[in-house]
Amino acid sequence: MTHLQAGLSPETLEKAKVELKENPDTLHQDIQEVRDMIITRPDIGFLRTDDAFILRFLRARKFNHFEAFRLLAQYFEYRQQNLDMFKNLKATDPGIKQALKDGFPGVLSNLDRYGRKILVLFAANWDQSRYTFVDILRAILLSLEAMIEDPELQVNGFVLIIDWSNFTFKQASKLTPSMLRLAIEGLQDSFPARFGGIHFVNQPWYIHALYTVIRPFLKDKTRKRIFMHGNNLNSLHQLILPEILPSELGGMLPPYDMGTWARTLLDHAYDEDSDYCPESYTLSVKDLEKDLSPKTMKRSQSVVEPGVLKRPEKVKSEEENMQPLLSLD
């Protein structure tokens, strides 16, 4: 094990080896091969190229050097093409701050059975008179920048749950195709995170209509990981245990406190005054390590009474266990 793998538990080390083809003996060589490709894209300013940074892109693309480099290039290209989005990218920015306080995103305290961090969005909370969809996207990207510093999450990834309860047609009308495509490009094509599942619950018919609009922009792998549950929360609970979910999602925990994650970011000096710069993407996340480290991010089984539920010896991924619940073809 190299120093670059020091933050991984033995279980996650094995997962990185088996699922991602991560080899400690060739890790530095893998990183250097990606770095050597930077010269092929002189049109892009690669503002950060240290080992730890490049490693997260390799993990996101299962150590395929070319795909990892393409993701790295798209990461910085997306930021170059959308400079206004990344100016003042900090939790104290008025639009970002309000979006965070309204739970965009919410971040649950427990990991799922696969070690993934669970993000929740309660769509009806969007106050369109106070902040825009772009502010929500910026808040999500800022949050992901903070969390992806954790090597455990680089390997295990994330799960997203979107609750569309009480999301009105008027609110939905503000979600233009160009805005949705901007979000897809930023999250699917330009960020080194592994999303194991995207779950829609309580979605009205017009959300299905929106999905048909964005579906052509989704990669096949992304489509397979989108699950439409409707009002059937039991199907959600088959994949994410109710013991770690708030009551709004049919879980056994108290209602989610929308300001929890906002306070975490605001309490850890996410208030740099500099605009777009190399340092802005580190986001002072070292101060967050005690909150985001494997030691404090308990797996879902930790909240279950001992003996009630046991972790299986080998757990298959969601896409292996279950196909999307509703096809929109």
UniProtKB/TrEMBL annotation:
Keywords: Cytoplasmic vesicle, Endosome, Golgi apparatus, Lipid-binding, Membrane. The keyword Cell division does not apply. InterPro entries: CRAL-TRIO_dom, CRAL-TRIO_dom_sf, CRAL/TRIO_N_dom, CRAL/TRIO_N_dom_sf. CDD domains: SEC14. GO terms for molecular function: phosphatidylinositol bisphosphate binding. PROSITE patterns: CRAL_TRIO (PS50191). Residues 96-257 form the CRAL-TRIO domain. It is found in: Cytoplasmic vesicle, Clathrin-coated vesicle; Early endosome membrane; Golgi apparatus, trans-Golgi network membrane. It is a peripheral membrane protein. Residues 293-329 are annotated as: Disordered. GO terms for biological process: lysosome organization; podocyte development; renal filtration. Gene3D superfamilies: Alpha-tocopherol transfer, CRAL-TRIO lipid binding domain, N-terminal domain of phosphatidylinositol transfer protein sec14p. Required for normal morphology of late endosomes and/or lysosomes in neurons. Binds phosphatidylinositol 3,5-bisphosphate (PtdIns(3,5)P2). This is Clavesin-2.
